[in-house]
Design goal:
Elements: E1 8-12, E2 15-17, H1 30-40, E3 45-49, H2 59-64, E4 67-68, E5 74-76, H3 80-87, E6 92-96, H4 103-116, E7 121-125, H5 127-131, H6 133-138, E8 143-145, H7 150-162, E9 174-178, E10 181-185, H8 209-215, E11 231-234, E12 237-238, E13 265-266, H9 269-281, E14 286-289, H10 298-308, E15 314-317, E16 327-328, E17 331-332, H11 334-342, E18 345-353, H12 357-363, H13 375-384, E19 388-395, H14 402-418, E20 422-427, H15 435-442, H16 469-483, H17 486-495
Parallel strand pairs: 1-3, 1-6, 6-7, 7-8, 11-14, 14-15, 15-18, 18-19, 19-20
Antiparallel strand pairs: 2-5, 4-5, 8-9, 9-10, 12-13, 16-17
Helix pairs in contact: 1-7, 3-4, 10-11
């Protein structure tokens, strides 16, 4: 059999966001990992971020001229014509869909590409794609990866190499249209990678790093305005020991479509150091760790932090180190705090989640006893170690009372008084793929045909909550304004997309 030459494009769509909020490139780690796997297999692969462009695209013009779209959001990125120009030379186009609030842009790109190039194979993946498959196939996607896809995408490439009209019937961990139905081949537990060191090195060099550095808009944190930030993101582990109701990890278990990829798995210390050296070789000076639970195994975490000490980079934690892992018998664990400081950590997101033990127990894995934990002592100690600290707080669960929400806001205010640099307030979003989404559907709090453009932390997505949606939105906005300093608010607002265009 003669095999076709096949090339792959991994496409980040243009970004969409609310006027008055900060537009940040997606930059998820899915593409560097998939790109590394494809390259290791000898497959030509390109990454194109349509939010920032590349080559001839004027970055300043892109971000100075976001375009209003019918949903009321604004689109930041290159034109449709530019996307089609980039797509033209590739046989397979992969478009990840992790974030539900970006679904409209993903589907728009799929329709655009399929209309212009019906012969190209469109592949998607991510928790949102597998949770919303009928919409994705209706938009033109040929196959959706249901689980971690480093190996799955290779199998898809090989199927396309064999035929311009490939069959995916023998591939596990995918779904695809089969006549008038969707055929689902669930992932197999034995195919889940346990030894993360066996995965090829992520292909960070395929990203438009210089454009990211010029923008200096990572997922979180605060940095000098207008200054280049030579950052790169990585993960030292996958999965999480906790299974919070609002997180898709809680649904990634045995016998689920993706298989047990929510299980906590770690890279070896040597692999982590090798990845840091790879990033440094690209010019990265600030490494942002995206682990869901960096210290999920505290003994391993402490050992790893000691080895990172001499790596010669500044380290930030984007997803947050679980508070319980920075405590010992409910008091600050100075061994952990000192290890983080000596390893070069500068900024840490702290997921306090809620000020209510009932909410913590029901929705957040009971992962912190907010009544026993010495949070005041922890914040003061962390500031003495020199960390910049940002707290994350959630509000708006279906059965959460006004008093419970006010308790969380008051807790955040106390934390700022102890030295917390800023407090971020999030309205609870029942993301597809999470147990909370299923609970919200069953309880009549969200319709199956919900508007994905509203699935963000600023919108009260659920109906019939104890505290009405408009009140929740007002409380969230007021809490952010009242609790945070003028300096912080001014810095954040300077990044924001204009409120009117």
């Amino acid at each position: 059999m003669t095999l076709r030459d096949v090339s792959v494009l991994l496409l980040y769509p243009p970004n969409q966001n609310l006027p008055g909020t900060v537009c940040k490139p997606n930059g998820s780690l899915a593409y560097p990992h998939l790109g590394g796997a494809l390259r290791h297999h000898g497959v030509p692969v390109t990454i194109f971020d349509a939010c920032v462009g590349d080559g001839p695209d004027d970055l300043d013009a892109i971000f100075a001229n976001p375009v209003a779209i019918p949903s009321g959001l604004v689109r930041t990125g290159v034109t449709d014509e530019r996307i089609l120009q980039v797509v033209a030379d590739h046989d397979i186009v992969g478009i990840t869909s992790i974030f539900t609030d970006q679904e409209s842009m993903v589907l728009h790109c799929a329709r655009l590409i399929k209309a212009a190039y019906p012969e190209k194979i469109l592949v998607s993946g991510g928790v949102n794609a597998r949770s919303r498959m009928p919409l994705f196939f209706a938009a033109g996607f040929d196959v959706v990866c249901l689980s971690e896809a480093e190996h799955t995408l290779i199998e898809i490439v090989e199927a396309v190499r064999r035929s311009a009209r490939p069959s995916f019937a023998d591939i596990h961990g995918v779904a695809f249209p089969d006549g008038n139905r969707i055929r689902v081949n669930p992932a197999r537990s034995r195919d889940i990678v346990q030894d993360l060191d066996t995965l090829p090195m992520p292909a960070w060099d395929l990203l438009p790093n210089q454009r990211y550095w010029t923008l200096a808009r990572p997922h979180s944190g605060m940095f000098e305005p207008g200054a280049e930030l030579r950052y790169g993101t990585m993960m030292t582990s996958l999965g999480c020991p906790f299974h919070c109701a609002y997180c898709h990890i809680a649904g990634e278990v045995e016998d689920s479509l993706p298989g047990p990829i929510g299980a906590f798995r770690v890279k070896s210390d040597e692999r982590v150091l090798a990845e840091i050296e790879t990033l440094k070789g690209l010019g990265v000076t600030d490494v942002f760790i995206e682990d869901d639970s960096l210290l999920g195994n505290k003994k391993r975490g402490l050992r790893l932090l000691e080895k990172i000490r001499g790596a010669g980079v500044t380290v930030c934690d984007l997803n947050g180190i679980n508070i319980i892992h920075m405590l010992k018998r409910w008091k600050p664990d100075h061994e952990v705090l000192e290890a983080l400081a000596l390893a070069g950590f500068a900024q840490i997101n702290m997921p306090f989640e809620t000020g209510n033990l009932r909410i913590m127990r029901k929705y957040a894995s009971n992962k912190l006893n907010v009544e026993k934990a010495d949070l005041r002592g922890l914040i003061i100690a962390m500031k003495e170690y020199g960390f910049q600290l940002y707290g994350n707080y959630m509000m708006g669960y279906p059965d959460e009372t006004m008093e419970e929400i006010q308790t969380t806001i008051d807790l955040a205010r106390e934390h700022v008084s102890y030295g917390l640099d800023a407090a971020n307030f999030f309205l609870v979003v029942p993301m597809p793929g999470s147990p909370l989404f299923d609970m919200a559907i069953a309880g009549g709090h969200i319709s199956p045909d919900f508007d994905p453009d509203k699935m963000n932390i600023y919108n009260a997505t659920m109906a019939n909550t104890l505290v009405p949606g408009p009140v929740l939105e007002e409380m969230r906005a007021r809490a952010w304004e009242e609790v945070n300093s003028t300096t912080w608010k001014s810095a954040k607002k300077a990044w924001a997309t204009p409120a009117s265009l």
